[in-house]
Design goal:
The chain has 385 residues and is an alpha+beta fold. Helix content is 28%, strand content 30%. It has eleven helices and 21 strands. The strands form four sheets. Strands 10, 11, 12, 13, 14, 15, 16, 18 and 20 form a nine-stranded antiparallel beta sheet that branches. The protein has a five-stranded parallel beta sheet with strand order 3-2-1-4-5, with helices on both faces.
Length: 385
């Protein structure tokens, strides 16, 4: 497979957000030409890809024509036109991850059913088609408040999710086919990045602990390694591998999990691509998730996932009350702190809670790392002009 890395090889990446940008940077280290498709002319990957094509990745013809330009196609978002990808695969274009797997994962209901069928533990759930069906299940006492409603398709980054804590929240149910999950009592939320090569090799990065912004339902901090014991870490690792195999994912995938108050580990959701919970690997591990993804889809040996140094990642989110052309305050003060690596994604417009960048804090002393993370959170502000 070494012949893939030549000056002529074209890797198509569907979507050019921050994940696509970092994937193009990893590809450039091997002189792999990256072609990126994204609807925004200001997408972060416009400045780092070899060639950028503006277009809708949910449009069948656009995705099909884009795919025909490349030797291989991969993606940085799962909400794409999978029918076009299936046609490309049938015509001999390498599409990784497999579009049939992506199609299953796009639908949270199908994803849950596949996990359940393969014995992967998840929260108790019901699939519903409408708000009326939710109310009917409540009346029949089949489901109970509190619960979590997730739209089956198109939801991510906290969107398409509604937590129903009380009766008054029932007035704000989401409309559309949904997954209704029991609201678990969660001690920790963790994520494991799994890498599965097209040649069958599989490994996992160490588990990370995710701390969410309660208002936006977005990851605010990420701690590597997760503060869990070795037995729990190994159990989580086995579940992550099982989930990736059950859904037949190649490349890297993020398996997000809950640790409940009963110390059960439940698989929450899976993303079949590089993920926000793996950004820290760029500096904190011997192999980044982006290089690992390329190794896996090209069939090269997977790289070491060992931690070089403990890390905390801080997501840089758009400040509340600011919308428009972005400006960053506090860069000078933050860059003066030892062990801080800043990544500004290059998005031109900010809005409340939009992911605009991240900072990785590297420190052997986790107490000091937390102090530096708090400094970043307090001093680096994403605002608008």
């Amino acid at each position: 497979m070494e012949q893939l890395v030549t000056s002529e090889f074209k890797l198509g990446i569907i979507a050019g957000g921050q994940l696509g940008k970092m994937l193009t940077l990893a590809a450039s280290n091997w002189d792999v030409k990256s072609y990126v498709l994204d609807p925004s002319s200001h997408a972060p990957a416009t400045t780092t890809s070899t060639w950028f094509i503006q277009g809708d990745y949910n449009d069948y013809q656009t995705v099909y024509e884009f795919g025909k330009m490349n030797h291989m196609v991969t993606l940085e978002i799962e909400h794409v036109n999978t029918d076009a990808l299936i046609k490309l695969k049938n015509e001999g274009i390498r599409v990784i991850p497999d579009p049939h797997s992506v199609k299953r994962i796009q639908d949270k209901g199908l994803q849950k059913n596949e996990l359940k069928k393969n014995g992967i533990p998840t929260s108790e759930y019901h699939l519903v088609e409408s708000v009326n069906e939710i109310r009917d299940l409540l009346q029949k006492k089949i489901i109970h408040v509190p619960f979590v409603q997730k739209l089956r398709k198109s939801g991510f980054d906290g969107r398409g999710v509604k937590v129903i804590n009380g009766e008054k929240d029932l007035d704000h149910l989401l409309r559309g086919p949904s997954v209704i999950e029991k609201k678990e009592t969660i001690l920790k939320e963790i994520s494991i990045i799994v890498a599965r090569s097209i040649k069958g090799e599989i490994n996992t990065f160490p588990a990370v602990e995710m701390i969410f912004n309660p208002e936006a339902n977005l990851v605010e901090y990420l701690l590597c390694p997760a503060q869990i014991d070795a037995t729990m870490a190994e159990k989580a690792r086995e579940l992550a591998i099982g989930a990736a195999i059950a859904l037949d994912i190649h490349g890297v995938a993020a398996v997000e999990m809950f640790i409940t108050d009963n110390l059960d580990i439940l698989v929450n959701e899976i993303a079949p691509r590089p993920h926000n919970s793996g950004h820290h690997t760029i500096e904190g591990n011997f192999t980044s998730q982006y290089e690992q993804h390329l190794r896996a889809i090209f069939g090269f040996p997977l790289g070491s996932v060992d931690i070089k140094i403990p890390s905390i990642m801080v997501n840089l989110l758009g400040e509340e009350g600011y919308r428009g052309k972005v400006k960053y305050e506090g860069l000078t003060e933050c860059m003066a702190v030892d062990g801080i690596k800043l990544h500004i994604y290059g998005k031109k417009e900010t809005r409340p809670f939009r992911k605009m960048g991240h900072a990785t804090i590297l420190d052997h002393d986790l107490k000091q790392a937390w102090e530096k993370a708090e400094f970043i959170k307090q001093h680096l502000k994403v605002k608008s002009w």
